[in-house]
Amino acid sequence: MAANQTKKMQLTFEQIRQIEAEHGSPCYIFDEEAFRKNYDDIVKAFSGRYERFILAYSYKTNYIPYLCGIIREKGGWAEVVSRLEYDLALKVGQDPAKIIFNGPVKCYEDIELALANKSIVNLDAMYEVDYVTKYAREHPDEQVRVGLRINIDLSDEASLSQIQDQFKVGRFGFDLEDIEQAASRLTASENIVVNSLHGHSTTPGRSVKCYEVIARMLCDAAERYFAQTVEYINVGGGIYGYIPPEMRWTEVPTFDDYAGAVCGVMNASDWARKHQPRLVLEPGVAMVANALSFVTKVVSTKTIRGKLFVTVDGSAFHVKPTFHRVNQPHRIISAQSTDSRQRFSVVGSTCMEKDYLLTDIVDVMPHRGDYIKIDSVGAYTVVLSPDFIYLSPAIVVNKGGRWCGIRRRQTFDDMFGCYSFDF
Questions:
Q1: Element (H or E) spanning 78, and its range?
Q2: Which of 11, 33, 122, 375 is the most exposed place for a label (fewest CB within 10 A)?
Q3: The CATH fold of domain 32-283
Q4: CB burial class (10 A; 0-12, 13-18, 19+) of residue 324?
């Protein structure tokens, strides 16, 4: 079995029909074993090379409370980027001291609560520095510990940007030239110390080299500006998890590849060896992408000018809300066996022409009432799927042979309960 791979559950037609009877169609199926294995494999890869390691799960990637509760249970931390996510972490029982609050927009009340709770707050801009100094003035007897997010140049040897969409300059964090000013303004208050440096950047290639650069830049910045106070070196998230062969458009690093590079930097740094900071990774996609599947029911089949379409009761919003064109692993689950294979596209329930769940696949031809199970849909689908035309589907997990709902199917009142009908 390939590195980071987990064996997907094989469901029968009768099992899915039972799930539909209890929870409706379409629905998501959570593979708890895969999720737990991803956590264990990442921790093993990194802590085996650098003992003081923290896995902080990226809530924004998929904040199903059941998943967040597993992270808490296993001793992991929460990485949040909004008050919504911060409150969710508290709701699932996460220790506030094990919450990392990132993100570019925080109001004073957000920072006030997080600092009072002893959470790690990584500041993104100077206005947040003002908020922290205000908090420090109002709490003179309290030691205020905050972090800084650093904007790191990830151009490669050919000066090509490795930032998302190849933007020349990333928009998050402090420019290296502004670090000294931010530090000066913070440490002018005797009760403020900078204890965390954060360097996440969204990189389309997710290359090992980028994480190596981030780790090195953070260690260098810590040694230069905060040698005695930094306790956390946070390289951010975005690493690859297991990518099924049919989805691979590039060479996919393993958890060991990432850990070898990042921990190698930590172990080679004189400053890190002396001060032994905690190394933080904030995985999201690597944790949850392969832990969620989507099951949708075939509503109709038809041919238009020689092209065969299979229409289902789900939509592309449920499996790939960014509408990329890569076909995820999938399986036709039919009530009747057949060897007939044809080329067809699986299209969704919305009124959008581009609503393609699977494009030009060659597989067993399904019939009305059959099901299609699409795997590797865990990253960003649940959190990005809009309330568009249809109600949000249920999410189920197998517990002791029984399919239990960890999110029930949305109702009309759920969707419209916050609207006014007084007109």
A1: strand 77-80
A2: 33
A3: TIM Barrel (3.20.20)
A4: exposed
Is the CB of residue 336 less than 8 Å from the CB of residue 361?
A: no
Residue 303: count of CB within 10 angstroms of its CB: 9
Q: How far apart are CA 20 and CA 26, in angstroms?
A: 8
CATH topology of domain 290-416: Lyase, Ornithine Decarboxylase; Chain A, domain 1 (2.40.37)
Residue with tokens 């699409």: 374
Domain ranges of the chain: 32-283, 290-416
248 φ, ψ to 5°?
-80, 120
- Give the contacts of 335 (CB within 8 A, at least 6 positions apart): 13, 367, 369, 370
Strand pairing report for 53-58 and 77-80:
parallel
Q: What is the 3-state secondary structure (H, E, C) of 30-62?
A: ECHHHHHHHHHHHHHHHHCCCCCEEEEEEHHHC
**Residue 41 to residues 9, 37, 38, 57, 247: CA-CA distances in angstroms?**
19, 6, 5, 14, 21
Instruction: Please tell me the distance from the alpha carbon of residue 94 to that of residue 289, in angstroms, as a whole number.
Output: 22
Closest CA to 31 of 399, 394, 392, 380: 399
pLDDT tens digits, 3-35: 455 566 689 999 999 999 999 999 999 999 999
